[in-house]
# Entry
Amino acid sequence: MTPTARARRRFAWLAPVLLAFAPLAGAADIGNLYEVSVPVQGSGEAADRRAFGEAMGAVLVRVTGRRDAPGMPALAPLVQQPQRYIRTYRRVAGGLMAVSFDGNAVEQAVAAAGLPFWGGERPLTMVWLVGSRGQLVSAAASPERRAVDLVAAQRGLPLAWPVGDALDSPEQRAQQASSGNVAALVEAAARYGADGVLIGRPADGGFRWTFASAGQTREVRGPLEEGVHLAADQLAARLAVAGGASRRELAVEVGGVGSAAAYAEVGQLLAALEPVRSIAVREVRPDAVLYAITVRGDEAGLRRAIAATGRLVPAGTSPAGPVFRYQP
# Structure
């Protein structure tokens, strides 16, 4: 058997996988970051301009992950002249103005301002909220859930709520949330595919909020909306990427890929990373695959994101780029 024939036979398992390759994202997609609806007061051009400014401010909060973004001097030109970035706008029911901005132009302006960028694929956060009357707030409609969901939409934070079935006894989960049993609620959130948990229980006329994600826990006291801000602030601090609005293609080699199952899992791991926009297979090598990955941000951000998976271990650098080793 010739060397070429042996190589073809060795990598025969890759043929159907390469043909069917489609990266799977593990994060929740919040949709178009650049479409928002804001209240509009009055009629005429002056009212429209005020609404446009508020809409741009809302978009900047989403894409930077910072609540103070609309007031930052570096972003003042966007808030003061939002018409330059508008694609479409229209008045809709409920006294709202629906505005769609040019995402590429906004991203370039954020990058030029030197601010971090938080893309549209974001970790899902599970909410375990004990209401003012001691009940667990579930996926069913309620004033408390609507209030939390409203702020989450403004921050671009995807949420999951307990369904309240036999696997999630409302009484048991309410007791765990009230006692601050973070470990139990983190375990229960895995059922929903959530990456973090937001726990709220009544305290001092408001709520005591706990957010746990990636092995870190933070707390704050305040009204219903403060819990969402806590979660969004913590996630943005960890996931928003400096220079993240710019795109570039990087080569990444992953070793230890010796089967179809390994190939599929590595593809899923890479595709789910926040900086990654697209993946292509550049070359198949013995026990390794070389990927061409288009990312937002720089190589350092991609390296950190890959290493954080825990399954792809840094293994040095090749002339093409960073090298990792897959650990089943």
